[in-house]
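Format notes (please read before filing issues)

Several people have asked whether sequences and structure tokens are stored in separate files. They are not. Every record keeps both together, in the order shown below: the sequence lines, then the token lines. Line labels are part of the format and must not be stripped during preprocessing.
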Amino acid sequence: MGEQSGPRELVRYAQAAEDAGFDFEVSSDHYSPWLVSQGHSPYAWTVLGAVAHATSRVELMTYVTCPTMRYHPAVVAQKAATVQLLSEGRFVLGLGSGESLNEHVVGRGWPSVDTRQDMLVEAIEIIRELHTGDLVTYVGEHFRVDSARIWDSPDTPVPIGVAVSGEEGIDSFAPLGDHLIAVEPRPELVERWDEVHDGTSRKIGQVPVSWDPDRDAAVQRAHEQFRWFGGGWPVNAELPTPAGFEAASQFVRPDDVAGSIACGPDLDALAESVRPYLDAGFTDVAIVQIGDEQQERFLAEAAEPLLERMRALA
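Then the structure lines:
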């Protein structure tokens, strides 16, 4: 999570996570942190390149990149192809329609949700065409590509995951994407996605936890760093600055956060966090250990036994 750690630390944690036995690692792609107290937001693609070089086994993924505002989709196609080559085939390109927090910074405003979804459809079409390695010219309502080619392109197209939050998103993006990304364990999303993909694609969720030998410290850290999480994506997509998230979450109490995020040293309780996703039919779950200060200790002491418990549930 680039919003809570610097770039050198992220690479070090990625190496330690691979050593601890994680199967895949996902990277947020933000221009700003959610809250001022998080205090970080390095360039995700530079970090991914370093992680690709520093690891050898784990899959890598953006969770997620918006290929419509900060980045033109032709540029995303080139970046994804390069990371795929650097990682020797371990990369999945996770895409979504973005949040104002990260995309408004280029001064193009923030479109309506319908427009953002239409832009994402065109962006995926462009990325797919460019990943063939062919010369591409594309004229759409939102994007143009003029005689572009990805010169360093992998032999097979980069797999694409698409973040969706509702059934309309499934209808638009299931035919275009390889894998489903969602941050709510809703079985109806999985079922509808699988109708298009015959149950063969991956369904990838995300769960935050706050491990700490001191539960009070874990709750306090979760409140300081992650109280924005409870707003839901319809809200989170619209607020433009960390100050906006600070204001929107000012009345969220530590007990409120502890009621929705597993906090403390109890690994069984932390492992149970993934059960709703497993029950909903998700195949993969990304675990976010909240905060930077306990990352190394979490990876050294808690990660392996926590993984054992989570895999036992699966």
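For reference, the curators noted about this record: The chain has a mean pLDDT of 96. The beta strands are 24-27, 59-62, 91-95, 136-139, 144-148, 160-163, 179-181, 203-211, 262-264, 284-289.
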